[in-house]
Amino acid sequence: MEISDKSGGVEVSSASVATERHVSIFEQININVFWIANNFHWQALLAIVIPSMVVKFLDPAQKDINLALVVIWGTLVAVAVNPLVGAISDYATFRMGRRRPFLIIGTIANVIVLVLFALAPGWFSSIALLLTFIVLFLILQFTNNLANSPWSAIIADKVPAHQRGMTAGFNGLFTLLGTIIGSIVAGIIVNKNNALPIYRNEIVQIFLIIAVVQVIFVAYTVITVKETPLAEHVTFQFSPILKKFFFKPSRYPDLSWVLLARLLVMMGIWSVFYFLQYYFDDVLGGPGVKTIIFNSPFSGEQFAGALFLPALLLLALPTSIIAGSASDRWGRKIMVYISGAVMTVVCLMFILFQNQYGALIAGAFFGIGYGAYTSVDWALTTDVLPPTNEAGKFLGIWSAMGILPQVIGITIGGVLLQLMHTLPNHFGYTALFVVTIVYFGLGTVVIRQVKGA
């Protein structure tokens, strides 16, 4: 790959935005199968493992703020890495293609960091361990996004526009499948109520499982998905690279509205997901409370990983396929409207029905809204992509709009819960869900401004 700091535009001589060749269902599956591993990775870590480690290894009284501190800095790095690496991959001239080399390098580095994360609690404690968690999570975000950001553009590279709804449906399906498996596996293995030596072994086990899953699925993807490399004389201009991260909203209004809607909706989703385990422990748990079905002492990890999230995601699975295909016929926006309305109602249910059965019913309904949104979101974005050769850059920005909400959501949520944790009737969680309703409502309204989908 040639990197130049000469002034002027970027010269691109080959590679269309997407092939017009019909892509078989088997090829669509191969393109998307990586997302099983990637979402297994992040769901296990973000919903179960890291919140649990923050409580067990650090000060439980400061769990909301400590969780925010661990997550925020790495997530900010991911926001920058996504468009940067996506833009670079657009002009990469590796023989393997534009996207696969980044997938390989990023995954190798990611696995190394996972191993270090697993071992860190045995090396440090207290403030040193908090700082170690922050640094390792930062590096973890960098390495993982080095792999997945370029791969986000593979649908635009290889799939014609008229097939992207179905392909995005597979993307949503595998996203949810990885999320379900990650939730269940982590929820079963990790239990902070266990003695510290047992718990440390559980942490090592789950990190090693995540690493092995990454290696297997990335190897399969690299073997089965072929890319056509760009011509060798393609030139990437490095000096104006920061300008390439941004674009005038007035030039691409539809894309701008889609990105803003994604930012808002994902703020709502992550505000719920990050604090689920703490909500279950603080609101549904308590002395003598047992987890329904298992009839064991209540554990936020177990309830989240083995009951709530599977209920949510099992309904999200068929919804993602149905919504992806239906959006090809009836349009993407109607699916966003439906998903936003459903997820808003679910937040009201969390406020009104604070018991285990109410939470499971709310989770099932949230799965319908979440599944519809995840399948249509990508297809809607690819529909409004500018007709340029820079799909990786724009989809890197799109990916960043799914990461930035993690920073905003966990910061606002962590501050709300920390400030209001002494108020009666768990008012901090009520305030959190009210804010989440606002996010979903604004995201649904914003999508109405999109004209080209």
Protein model, in words:
This protein is an all-alpha fold and 453 residues long. It has 16 helices and four strands. It has helices at residues 25-32, 34-57, 63-90, 100-119, 126-151, 154-158, 164-189, 196-224, 241-244, 253-274, 276-284, 300-330, 332-352, 356-383, 391-420, 427-446; strands at residues 2-4, 235-237, 290-291, 296-297. A two-stranded parallel ribbon has the order 1-2. Strands 3-4 form a two-stranded antiparallel ribbon. Helix 10 (253-274) packs parallel to helix 15 and helix 11 packs across helix 12 (300-330). Mean pLDDT is 81; it is low at 1-18.
Keywords:
mainly alpha, single chain, globular, two-stranded antiparallel ribbon, 453 residues, two-stranded parallel sheet, disordered N terminus
Summarize the structure in short.
73% of the residues lie in helices and 2% in strands.
